[in-house]
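Handoff note, outgoing to incoming analyst
You'll be picking up this chain. Sequence as last confirmed:
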Amino acid sequence: MNWILKTCLLATLYAAAVTAQPRPPKPPAPEPAPEAGPVPGLAAPATDIDRFELDRITDEARRIAADVKATVSVEVMNQVREQVEAVREKARTFGLIAQNFDKDFKFDWKPGGREDNLYREGTRLLDERKWERAADVFSNIVSRGGPRSDGALYWKAYALHKLGRRPDAQAALADLAKSYPASGWLNDSKALSVEISQASGQPVSPESQDDDELKLIALNGLVNSDPERAVPLIEKLLMGSHSPKMKERALFVLAQSGSAKGRETLTQIARGKSNPDLQLKALRYLGTAMRSKESRQVLAEIYSSAASVEVKREILRGFVANGDRERLVNAARTEASPELRRDAIRLMGETRAYVELWQMYQGAAPDIRQEILRAMAGGDNSDKLLEILKTEKDSKLRLEALRALQRRDAAKSGEAIAAIYPGEADAEVKKEILRTIGRQNNAKILVDLARKEADPALKREAVQNLSRMKSKEATDFLLEVLNK
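Most recent structure output, in case you need it:
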């Protein structure tokens, strides 16, 4: 046993003893010596009090250092280091982004990133009728050339129209038609352009407000009393130039109407008849508010023909909400996009489709297998995960299986995991096994493994985990190590 390990053990035992027993009282301080005047040119000599205080402070510092070594494990320190490195990596990434921004501030936006946050901020400002600030936010999005630029151009024109800046609004709509000839916002753009043209020559105050709330209350009441008359009015509202909040609420009223006409209109919007924002909302309502065999069929048809990742992702969620496990599993098996396939696998884990996940695992690529193991972590899959630990050749996958076992099944899989330890060849996997048993607080198994372990690094890992346990078996073994 090397001196580093013995030092750590001594520190651990000492810290435990200090915690368990009261400290002795401090010795009385000696009487101060009579003061003597300083000798010119010489420093004043240290008194007994100085020496006592220095010794006391030194001992206290040593004790604190020993306590820190005893309580802060190597694993915790490694986790801290990993987090620090992650922060440093992010800082380096942001530094590179800042250095590589061109004059137009163009950037390759990713779904769920800053562009989506800006877009949500812009629509919130529209709902609050803060037109000028909204126009600035959407101009910012447009200047970056991301995937939501066409929608941002439309809402920029909408905000400019509300400000009374009609030529600028028409210019933004013209830019939308020219730059994005296949955009899903073109129909809304045409309707807004007509409204702007009709309003030309009339004074408009930026503070003027339509009572959207009153209209929605009236529509909601009409839906309850006469759905067939209400639906055409809602359709007209959805196709007109209204705020995002107004259109979203109107769509919700339509989804709750329960009428055949309302379902037909919602389906058309879900198929892309309206703008992309409303299409996603309509897909969500098909999955949640209108759960039926017909809705499941419509979602499947749209999924098979859709090109948009966001549309397909929303439909996958709709499969879950509709209880359509068969189509969700089929998407996980056949989807060409790795991103969407991973989404489908994660959703399979949420719906507890563990039998299908295990079937998929057999012939999947390593990266997909890793995602499957993460999805299986939420259920009682200890038998399958232990089988992977025994038979899987890829050490990364064995580690993933071990982590999955830790999350839900650790308490009843300790002995089975320990049985795998002697035959495991990968040192990292063996360390993870020791940590797993340590987290289970199963000192007996860990002591048995530590006694048989010949590798110094692995033995240190076992002892480090035992040093954090408050059990007789762990303490006895630590004393045994010290007495060797």
